[in-house]
Amino acid sequence: MRCKRLGLLRRGVVLQHDDATSHSTNLTQQWLQRYGWEILPHPAHSPDLAPSDFPLFGPLKRHLGGMAFKTEDDLISELRNWFDNLDVDFFRVGINSLLWRWQKCIDLHGDYVEK
């Protein structure tokens, strides 16, 4: 498996995923070990802690709502423009909310964490 952005593949990355089959295959696990990525475990039946719940998707959905794109390149251009104009605090708040939800899960001994 080759990646064009090898500069991003470095030690110190912490990855959270949902244990989907594609994430837990031997090939994927070997790749993650080779680059020294730490895997943050995902508690079973905890959709509120899923990376897909990251606060990115609601605002993105609202932004794209009602838009129509003639080509894939038009969509990609709009996405790049949207991401380029986001304030860095947008991501900081999102990451911090994930950390807060993880801490709440720990405090509740793994029980469901409501938003």
Share of helix, binned: 40-55%
The major β-sheet equals:
2 strands, parallel
- Briefly note the structural class of the backbone: mainly alpha
Low-confidence stretches: 1-6
Question: In which order are the strands of the major sheet placed?
Answer: 1-2
Number of spatially distinct domains:
2
**Annotation, overall tally of beta strands:** 2
Gyration radius, in Å: 17 Å
**H and E string:** EHHEHHH
Averaging pLDDT over every residue, what do you get? 78
CA(first)-CA(last) distance: 38 Å
Q: Strand percentage, roughly?
A: 5-15%
Count of helical regions: 5
Assembly level: single chain
Shape label: globular
Chain-wise SSE layout:
Elements: E1 14-16, H1 21-24, H2 26-34, E2 38-40, H3 57-64, H4 72-84, H5 88-107
Parallel strand pairs: 1-2
What does this structure look like?
The model is unreliable at 1-6 (pLDDT under 50). The protein has 2 domains: 1-42, no CATH class; 44-115, no CATH class. The longest helix is centred in the last third of the chain and has 20 residues, at 88-107. The protein has a two-stranded parallel sheet with strand order 1-2. It starts with 13 loop residues before the first strand and ends in an 8-residue tail after the last helix. The radius of gyration is 17 Å and the shape is globular. It has 5 helices and 2 strands. It is mainly α and 115 residues long. One of its GO terms (molecular function) is nucleic acid binding. This is Histone-lysine N-methyltransferase SETMAR. InterPro entries: RNaseH_sf, Transposase-MT_Hybrid.
